[in-house]
Design brief:
The chain has helices spanning 2-10, 72-91, 115-127, 146-156, 221-237, 240-243, 296-305, and strands at 46-47, 54-59, 95-99, 131-134, 179-184, 194-199, 246-251, 309-314, 323-326, 331-335, 352-358, 368-373, 378-383. It has 389 residues and is α/β, with parallel strands linked by helices. The chain has a single domain, classed as Metallo-dependent phosphatases (Purple Acid Phosphatase, chain A, domain 2, 4-Layer Sandwich), CATH 3.60.21. Bound molecules: 2-acetamido-2-deoxy-beta-D-glucopyranose (4 copies).
Length: 389
């Protein structure tokens, strides 16, 4: 009740708010937490272009900072920076996502590990392209953490939209990179037409002398954060299905359910490289019932509460590029393209990006997505809409 009044006061010009909408069943004081619905008051609003399109380019698994003790390592970072400059100059995206494993943290030194972030973001700073990051298992190591990378990125990249989750949803401190970014049809709009969601799947190793491996799935507290956030968005802006608000989600380690998709890929319908056999460690950890991952609370909440979800995009498995519809939630999943010259690779995989082009702010019009290689070759194009397998 108090919560409903609070929202009504904060958003007096909005829809009348039925009490049922804020009855969260959260079973805790979390339902009283306020989610900031204008999270970037000091940054330019992200908007669709005048022709109604919005283009996202995803760099994944850049793996900066490998083998700083020999010539090979630093050369890979030069190659990755060249790839970023080439792709950004020709693609001219409206937004860039760095989808995890920005840095090979196990090769870094305590005293200067996050200075690698300066190198990663340099092409984005130079070309003034707004972007944000998810973080991967290699970004949590004894000499670096997701939180440290986020702090550094915000200090050195004026157009970073990366944020940190509230402390109760930060995965015990190892998964702070959970947040959302609004995209408006035009800058003066009251509410966004598209929400880009970013989730922290943790993983890697803890800091300190006695480092232990960290949970490699999105923490279950994030399920509560999703429910709370969507409920407040709905109260302020109207429900996504009624007002026409779309969503797209990014998480470094693929959801556990993706593991079962690989056996039934059809290379015509689900095009793209399929060279990395998924197994233990390839997706978010399995639970006791292995058909359900430990990410089940997150996965269920995402699919239950975020309506008009165009898809979920992950990196982590460098030899996979394919998309496939996940039947249990009826949601499209896509792998990124391995972008970095660091990180494991194999003959013929090459390096590139995934492009995602929204063709309209209307969520009924699904985005088009494809892989673009460094040399400009493109393949594995699909439309992420209801006609997709
Ligand atoms: C962390 O950094 C310290 C100090 O530079 C270095 O001695 C150590 O080898 C690094 N540890 C790891 C696990 O890379
Ligand atoms: C960090 O320091 C180490 C050890 O002095 C050096 O080899 C490495 O190149 C430095 N890395 C960065 C990113 O400055
Ligand atoms: C790490 O483990 C060693 C051996 O068990 C122990 O002596 C030491 O105190 C531990 N260090 C920390 C920082 O916990
Ligand atoms: C694969 O997809 C194509 C195109 O939709 C279809 O014609 C073909 O029958 C599918 N193959 C299998 C084995 O399902």
């Amino acid at each position: 009740m108090i919560y409903a009044l609070l929202i009504a006061v904060l958003a007096p010009h909005c829809w009348a708010i039925p009490l049922a909408q804020v009855d969260l069943h959260l079973g805790s004081s979390r339902s009283l937490e306020t989610i900031e619905l204008n999270p970037y008051p000091d940054k330019p609003r992200l908007t669709f272009r005048h022709d109604g399109t919005f283009k996202v380019t995803v760099f994944s698994d850049l793996h900066y900072g490998e083998n700083p003790w020999d010539d090979w390592g630093p050369q890979q970072d030069v190659n990755s920076a060249n790839l970023m400059n080439t792709v950004l100059t020709s693609e001219q995206p409206d937004y860039v996502v760095l989808n995890g494993d920005l840095i090979t943290g196990e090769n870094t030194f305590r005293e200067n590990s996050t200075t690698l972030i300066d190198e990663v973001v340099a092409p984005l700073n130079k070309l003034k392209i707004p972007f944000s990051s998810t973080h991967g298992n290699h970004d949590n190591e004894p000499n670096i953490t997701h939180a440290e990378e986020i702090r550094r990125e915000l200090r050195v990249a004026p157009l970073s939209y990366t944020r940190a989750a509230p402390a109760w949803a930060d995965g015990q401190g190892y998964g702070p990179g959970t947040y959302w970014v609004p995209v408006y049809k035009k800058a003066s709009d009251h509410s966004p037409s598209l929400i880009l969601w970013f989730f922290d799947s943790r993983g890697g190793f803890s800091e300190g002398a006695n480092s232990t491996s960290l949970p490699d799935w999105v923490d279950e507290a994030v399920a509560t954060w999703i429910e709370l956030t969507v409920s407040q968005m709905n109260a302020a802006w109207g429900p996504a299905d009624r007002v026409g608000r779309g969503s797209l989600a990014f998480v470094h380690i693929p959801p556990h359910v993706v593991q079962d998709l690989q056996a039934n890929l059809n290379s015509t319908q689900d095009p793209g490289l399929n060279d990395d056999e998924l197994g233990s460690g390839s997706t978010q950890a399995s639970g006791e019932d292995t058909s359900l991952g430990k990410d089940a609370p997150f996965w269920d909440a995402l699919n239950a509460h975020v309506l008009n979800l165009h898809g979920v995009i992950s990196g982590h498995d460098h030899g996979n590029e394919w998309c496939k519809r996940e039947p249990s939630k009826n949601v499209i999943f896509c792998f990124d393209k391995h972008s970095g010259y660091g990180g494991y690779s194999s003959t013929g995989w090459g390096h590139g990006v995934r492009n995602i082009v929204f063709r309209s702010p209307n969520p009924k019009v699904g985005p088009e997505t494809w892989i673009r290689m460094e040399d400009g070759e493109t393949h594995a194009r699909i439309i992420m809409d209801s006609s997709y397998n």
